[in-house]
Write a structure and sequence with these properties.
The protein contains 9 helices and 19 strands. The protein is an alpha+beta fold. It folds into 2 domains: about 240 residues, Zn peptidases (Aminopeptidase); about 100 residues, Alpha-Beta Plaits, CATH 3.30.70.360.
Length: about 350
């Protein structure tokens, strides 16, 4: 337990945000100190460093299991980089998301990588919080593949097999300008955009509570019109769509159907959803390992936000997110339960030895 907490505190103390590229390098090097006896393969894309650690001198063509840990965090208050313990909890930026889990994954790999009879990889990345494009996705594109990935994101021992994909889109409405006193001489782009937004609200109403369905957030509405006495001839809306895996093939067509005359849809980003069947053998074994250690069969859960697992699903690899007990990710009161870190370690060990 002391070893886990010490490593977690060391990682948390480094302010490894996108805005601090040196800290991203520093936190990766601190993590790699723990596994210096293994082969360390380094990657870098667009200045973003990552690493892959494994036993042996040659990278396997395909790993059986990859433990994925992201070492970057969202920005926090200065004092959040000074981790402290209180009432059985470890507080600080990244405790829950996910430096404490990263510490456990590193130590589990260090103990078992030479004992298991299959290729086990440890993937350490530094850009998950901003999309994972230059680390996990880059490694997958470079042939770092696996049968199953566990990313230590916070799940309180739930096994997260599904997460929503992301579409960012811009809807542009075009009209005809006129003097505001004579609106019949023009065509208001704002009214056209409003018609689209009404269609959007009817098709994707905001849920009154958490529910597993595709949702759309209208992130912004803008117009170039800078005066009150002019009919606007252009207006735009920015959309943040979080779609469930079941809607992967239909979401773009669904949005297009909502357009009205004078509006156009521009897809700016489409990120895949995460999906691994809950009957997958690795999922079953992970749940069984959790039950053997805790006495309770872990739940299969869904997540509304994405993780690096989606990049591996897109590359034909199964995977889940699975982490210890904690709360407050991305908030000023982020914490992880210290005892659960030891439980997490025991679960991962039992799972890896059962494969």
């Amino acid at each position: 337990m002391d070893t886990i907490v010490k490593l977690a505190k060391d990682l948390i103390a480094i302010p490894s945000t996108k805005e601090n590229p040196q800290a991203l390098k520093d936190v990766l090097e601190r993590a790699l100190q723990e596994v210096s006896e293994y082969t360390i393969e380094r990657f870098e894309k667009n200045g973003v460093p990552s690493a892959l650690v494994y036993s042996g001198t040659t990278r396997p063509k395909r790993f059986k299991i990859i433990l994925n840990a992201h070492l970057d965090v969202v920005p926090g208050r200065e004092e959040q980089y000074k981790p402290f313990e209180k009432d059985g909890k470890l507080y600080g930026r990244g405790t829950d998301d996910m430096k404490a889990a990263a510490a456990v994954e590193i130590l589990v790999f260090k103990e078992l990588a030479k004992r298991v009879t299959y290729p086990l990889g440890l993937q350490l990345v530094t850009d998950e919080e901003v999309g994972g494009f230059n680390a996990a996705k880059h490694q997958a594109e470079q042939g770092v593949l696996c049968d199953f990935m566990i990313a230590g994101e916070p799940t309180s021992f739930g096994v997260n097999n599904k997460a929503k994909g992301i579409v960012w889109a811009k809807v542009t409405a075009t009209g005809k300008t006129a003097h505001g006193a004579y609106p019949w001489n023009g065509e208001s782009a704002v009214w056209k955009l409003t018609q689209f937004l009404n269609n959007l609200q009817q098709t994707y109403p905001v849920p009154k509570h958490e529910v597993w369905q595709t949702t759309v957030n209208v992130a912004r509405v803008t117009t170039e019109n800078q005066t009150m006495n002019k009919v606007p001839d252009k207006a735009e809306a920015g959309l943040d769509v979080r779609y469930i895996p079941e809607d992967s093939e239909t979401i773009i067509a669904s949005l297009n159907k909502l357009l009205v005359l004078g509006t156009a849809l521009d897809i700016q980003l489409k990120e895949p959803s995460q999906f691994t069947d809950e009957k997958n053998n690795f999922v079953v074994k992970l749940r069984e390992a959790t039950q053997q250690v805790t006495g309770t069969l872990s739940e299969v859960i869904v997540k509304h936000g994405g993780s690096d697992v989606r990049h591996y699903n897109a590359a034909g690899c199964d995977g889940v997110t699975f982490g210890p007990i904690g709360a407050g990710l991305h908030t000023d009161e982020e914490w992880v339960d210290i005892q659960s870190l030891n439980t997490y370690l025991e679960i991962l060990k039992k799972f890896l030895m059962a494969i």
